Amino acid sequence: MADHILPQEIFDNIIDHFHDDIPSLQACAAVSQAWLSSARAHLFHRVSLLPPKHTRGAGLFFFRTRESRCQELFNLIESSSAKGRRLRPVTQYIRELYLCEGMHAREWLAHEPILPVLLRSLHNLRRLEIGRSASIHISWQQLSQGLKSSIQDEVLHLPSLTELKLGSLMLDNLGDMKKILRSCQHLQVLEVDHIIFANDDVAHLRMEETDEIVRSTRMPLDKLVVGPRTSTAFIACLLHPSSSIDVGTIRKLTMSISGNFADFARLLHASISVEFLELVLMNDVDLQEHWVLPPSLRFDLSQLFRLQTLKVNIDVLQKMEDPLPWLCALLQTGISSSRSNAIRNILIVYAIYLPAPYMDRSVNTTIFEMWRDIDAVLCGTEPGMDFQPGRSALYEHAYEKLERVMLEFVLENPIGFDVAPRFMKEMVLDSPGLEERKILHIGASDTSH
Questions:
Q1: Mean pLDDT lowest for which of 256-265, 289-298, 439-448?
Q2: Residues 105-124: pLDDT tens digits?
Q3: Which residue among 55, 98, 266, 417 is buried most deeply as judged by most CB within 10 Å?
Q4: Per-residue DSSP letter, 4
Q5: Residue of higher predicted confidence among 447 and 78
Q6: How far is residue 341's CA from residue 396's CA, in Å, rounded to a whole number?
Q7: Residue 355 carries which DSSP code?
């Protein structure tokens, strides 16, 4: 092919349209050397090393001798490097790596001898993910020292690595998490879920001489996701004086809450730069734990001066306790006696478990009876809410900057057709203030789609 007839940028743009079409990208890579680089940039951008299909020590002979995916990738890297300067090595294109541990006899992270060598060859990684598809935890202690060293001393030290996601991991103590985070040099995004500790004693975070140097050069984190079933001891690690993470720079914060409201409140109030906040109420949360806390240990939106978007995911599947009083109390904390807040968007995702058609469906019309109180908080119509004696009558209401309130229902257990439209007809939502301001938007979808 005469590639010189058209500028290379045109070919690159065409190939970009196949970014998620593996067969087409493979075909493009075989066209010419000029097309190979652009195709490889998509083919190897994200590499997922999944568990072997067959269990260790089982199966026929040709299954036992077959090379692992990890070995195949390493061989490909070695082959591309051997071609010299004619082509860029494959490692230059690998920007994201996902290590997925298997279950039981399909576990491989601790048994793959080439994995540490492979990790040390990846010099251009931007994101590293370690996790498991199931909720059973990966024991950090049982991983080989060579693998842990290649992760902590090589991959996490890369200048290009800015994102780290850890899931389904059991660490011996908080000191292990401290070492992992300290190994990161340029981290901007940190995501964790299902992280637990065999010993969550904060004594393992004792200050050392090097901690004073680390504390003066903490990493300015931009996004933090504390996912489901993560021990709140992780929060203690982040907020400890010896922590290498600066939570005060976080702009996007997501927290999945099953309890321990006071610990999550500490993290929230320390994240003074948050612009986007997402709170996920898990379906096993005990809201009574929130109500017994003193106000100083509850969530306080008035401390988040830069907050612009608030997203609340409420999972009420088979739950009897009404979460709306908690939501109303949360929104009330956004009211300050001296100024308005910066919140412009509020998104509430409400997961509802629908009763069968032959059961009492009055729940559909009563679950939002308290919404009028929330409407009053957001519009300043409740007596004493937006006006106090001695305050100027020209005072701007706390939620005056609010531009959009989106209420999205996710309907579980849908039976029949047109479940979402029928639900919208049955539901009664009294929201005079937001409707007058024309900023309330309501939608519904069911999980059958």
A1: 439-448
A2: 889 999 999 999 999 999 99
A3: 266
A4: G
A5: 78
A6: 10
A7: P
Residue type, 447: T
Q: Strand 276-281 to strand 309-315: parallel, antiparallel, or no bridges (unpaired)?
A: parallel
What's the rounded Cα separation, in Å, for the pair 207 and 239? 13
DSSP string, 405-445: EEEEEEEES--SSSHHHHHHHH-----HHHHHHT-EEEEEE
DSSP code per residue over 109-143: TTT-TTHHHHHHH--S-SEEEEEESSSSPEETTTS
Which pLDDT value is given to residue 393?
41
Given a cut of 70, is residue 319 above it in pLDDT? no
Give CA–CA dist 407/440, Å, rounded.
8
Judged against a pLDDT cut of 90, whether residue 210 lies above it is answered with no
Distance of alpha carbon 61 from alpha carbon 94, whole angstroms: 32
Rg of the chain taking only CA atoms, in angstroms: 26
Do strands 96-101 and 127-132 pair parallel, antiparallel, or not at all (unpaired)?
parallel
Q: What is the pLDDT, as a whole number, of residue 214?
A: 53
Phi-psi region of 84 (alpha: psi -120 to 50; beta: other; left: phi over 0): left
Nearest 5°: phi and psi at 224?
-130, 130
Per-residue pLDDT, 338? 65
Residue 420: both structure tokens together:
């979402």
3-state DSSP assignment of residue 61: helix
Q: What is the mean pLDDT of residues 51-76?
A: 70
279: β partners:
255, 312
